[in-house]
Amino acid sequence: MTDQDPMDVYSKPLKIEHTLLATIFFMKPRNKKEKPGRVLSVSYDKRFPLVKDFKINYIYTVNFLEKENHAGNHYHIKKNELFVPLLGEFSVLLEDPKTKKKETIQIRANEYPIIHVKAGTAHKVVSKSNQAILLVLATSANIDGDEFNYDVN
Questions:
Q1: Buried/exposed code over 106-138 (b: 16+ C-beta within 10 A; e: otherwise)
Q2: Angle 151-152-153 (CA atoms, 0-180°, nearest 5)?
Q3: pLDDT of residue 142
Q4: Are 71 and 59 in contact (CB under 8 A)?
């Protein structure tokens, strides 16, 4: 007999979508009538890793204060990242620098997605809201020599 916690359902994706250059995990939010005015959304649970062997060693937020502001325009050789929109809407532009394959993924915080961007994939995140917050879970800090400028359009 296994002891399953009823909260475990929020730690596992409802849906996983594999795109050309990324993987999107859609998480189940907890929105209880008896707890109005708030929603719980799990971004990380060590027991149920979204990406095999993805070890979170660095966590930060990017606060976008104006629409169309962007972050990124680079790629990493070693670092993998998970992008978690906390507030607002974003366009995530991705490109494989070797093959030149490109895609743009639209994400909204209220849909509870988490995007896995693998090492070697160039990325640029553009805010589509006047105020937006992106949480980044990364396998490492910005290591010298592991960030390569790359114009993703």
A1: ebebeebbbbbbbebbbbbbbbebeebbbbbbb
A2: 115
A3: 83
A4: no
CA distance 27 to 40: 10
Which amino acid, 47?
Answer: R
Half-sphere exposure of residue 34, counting CA atoms within 13 Å on the CB side?
A: 0
Question: Could you say which residues of the chain have pLDDT below 50?
Answer: 1
Is the full-model pTM beyond 0.90?
Answer: yes
| Nearest alpha carbon to residue 44 among 108, 137, 117, 141 | 137
How far is it, in rounded angstroms, from Cα 31 to Cα 71?
31
Q: Report how far apart the first and last C-alpha atoms of the chain are (Å, whole number).
A: 52
Contacts of the segment 38-41: beta carbons below 8 A, 24+ positions apart: 40/10, 41/10, 41/112
**Residue among 59, 71, 61, 60 at smallest CA distance from 127:** 71
The answer to whether the Cα torsion of 54, 74, 71, 110 is positive or negative is negative
Distance CA 110, CA 84 (A): 11
pLDDT in tens, 31-61: 988 989 999 999 999 999 999 999 999 999 9
